[in-house]
Automatic annotation (TrEMBL):
Keywords: Lyase, Metal-binding. GO terms for cellular component: cytoplasm. Residues 329-338 have a biased composition (Acidic residues). The lineage of its organism: Eukaryota, Viridiplantae, Streptophyta, Embryophyta, Tracheophyta. This is Phosphoenolpyruvate carboxylase family protein.
Length: 346
C-alpha cells in the first residue's frame, strides 16, 4: 500500500496551484514498497480492481409470541379497561393521555379531522409509552380497513355494523386469504415492522382486537348474532347514534334510549367471550358515567374525548377567572392573596 509523507518544506510553502491541488506535495514525498508497482495519482479509479464483497446476512428474527399485555389478553384475563378517544390528532395530547395511564387510545378517523398519515404520527407517538392504539375507521369498508391495519394498531373499530353479515365482512377485511380478503403487502408495511418481523403472518391475528359498533335499532335487534360471529372480539355500543336512530338526537338520556341500550347490553353479555362470544365495550355519557358502565358488565369503557376534556377545562378556567374578577371588584381593590394562590395552583 502507498504511504503518504507530509514534508516540512511543503508545509512552509505559501502557494498552491489551483490547477493541481496536490502541487504542495513533493514528488519525493510519495514512496511505495519496492515489491509493489507504483500507482499513478492520475490513473482512473475504475481501472483498479477491488475484491468482490458478499452481501451481509442477518440471522432471522424469532417469531414473536402474542403479547401477554395486549388488549385482547388483558380482556381474557378479566380486566376492565379504561380509554380515551383522540379526535384532535395531536401527538402532544396523545402523549399526555398515554403518560396519564389510559389503558388504550382510540384514534378516531370517523369524527376527527385526521386520516391515515395523521394516524401514523399518533401511533409513533404512542409506541414508546407502550400504550395500545385502536383505530376507528371513517366508514365500514375493506379499503379503509386495509390501510389502517397496515399501520399496525392493536385494535380496529368498524362503525355502523347492523347485522351478522356486516360483522362477517368486517372480520374478512382483517384476515388475509384464504380466511379473508385483506390485501397483502406484509413484506413492507409498518404492521410487520416493514418486513423485519418474519413471524408476522403466523400470529398477526393473535393480538388484533376487532370491534364492531352497534349504533342503530336494526343492529340492536341482531346484537346477539353479531356478538356470536367468529372473529368479533368486542361489540361497541354507540349511544349517540342509537338515540338518533330512535328519534331522540337531542336527548340521549331519554327513557326509551336507555331501555334500548340495556337490551343491546344484555344481548352481548349473553355471549361467552371464551367460547366465541364478544366482550362488551362502550362510551360513557354525562348521564351514564364510566363507573355505571363498569357495574353493568362493560369490559372496555371509554370515558373521555380529548376535545371535551380541553373544552371543559377551558370553560372552567375562564369562568373561574371572571368570577374572581367580579368578586374582586366588590372588595374596594383589596387583593385576595389566598384566592389568587388557589386559582393559579389549579
Amino acid at each position: 500500500m502507498a504511504t503518504l509523507t507530509y514534508t516540512a518544506a511543503a508545509a512552509a510553502s505559501p502557494k498552491l496551484s489551483l490547477r493541481n491541488p496536490l502541487s504542495f506535495i513533493s514528488s519525493k514525498s510519495l514512496s511505495f514498497p519496492s515489491s509493489k508497482p507504483s500507482i499513478s495519482l492520475l490513473k482512473p479509479l475504475n481501472s483498479t480492481k477491488f475484491p468482490t464483497l458478499s452481501p451481509l446476512k442477518c440471522s432471522p428474527n424469532p417469531s414473536p409470541s402474542p403479547s401477554t399485555s395486549s388488549l385482547k389478553s388483558r380482556l381474557r384475563n378479566g380486566e376492565t379497561l379504561y380509554g380515551i378517544f383522540l379526535l384532535s390528532f395531536s401527538p402532544t395530547l396523545a402523549e399526555i393521555a398515554a403518560l396519564s395511564g389510559y389503558d388504550f387510545v382510540v384514534i378516531d378517523m370517523e369524527h376527527g379531522p385526521g386520516e391515515i398519515h395523521e394516524s401514523l404520527q399518533i401511533l409513533r407517538t404512542l409506541s414508546p409509552t407502550n400504550t395500545p392504539a385502536i383505530i376507528r375507521l371513517p366508514e365500514f369498508s375493506a379499503a379503509w380497513a386495509k390501510k389502517a391495519l397496515d399501520l399496525g394498531p392493536q385494535g380496529i373499530m368498524f362503525p355502523m355494523i347492523d347485522s351478522p353479515k356486516d360483522a362477517k365482512k368486517a372480520v374478512s377485511y382483517c384476515r388475509f386469504p384464504p380466511d379473508g380478503i385483506r390485501g397483502s403487502a406484509h413484506t413492507v408495511v409498518r404492521a410487520s415492522n416493514y418486513g423485519i418481523n418474519e413471524g408476522y403472518l403466523s400470529n398477526y391475528m393473535e393480538d388484533l382486537l376487532i370491534m364492531c359498533q352497534v349504533e342503530t335499532v336494526d343492529a340492536v335487534k341482531k346484537v346477539e348474532e353479531i356478538a356470536a360471529v367468529d372473529g368479533v372480539d368486542c361489540v361497541q355500543m354507540g349511544p349517540l347514534d342509537l338515540s338518533a336512530s330512535l328519534g331522540y338526537l337531542w336527548d340521549p338520556g331519554h327513557k326509551n334510549v336507555r331501555e334500548m341500550l340495556r337490551t343491546a347490553e344484555r344481548g352481548v353479555l349473553k355471549s361467552d367471550p371464551g367460547d366465541g362470544g364478544a366482550f362488551l365495550a362502550g362510551f360513557a355519557m354525562p348521564h351514564d358515567p364510566p363507573v355505571e358502565l363498569g357495574r353493568r358488565g362493560y369490559h372496555m369503557v371509554s370515558g373521555a374525548v380529548d376535545f371535551a376534556l380541553f373544552r371543559n377545562a377551558a370553560l372552567a378556567d375562564v369562568k373561574s377567572f371572571k368570577n374572581s374578577v367580579t368578586v374582586g371588584s366588590d372588595d374596594d381593590g383589596e387583593e385576595d392573596k389566598d384566592g389568587d394562590e388557589k386559582y393559579w395552583s389549579e
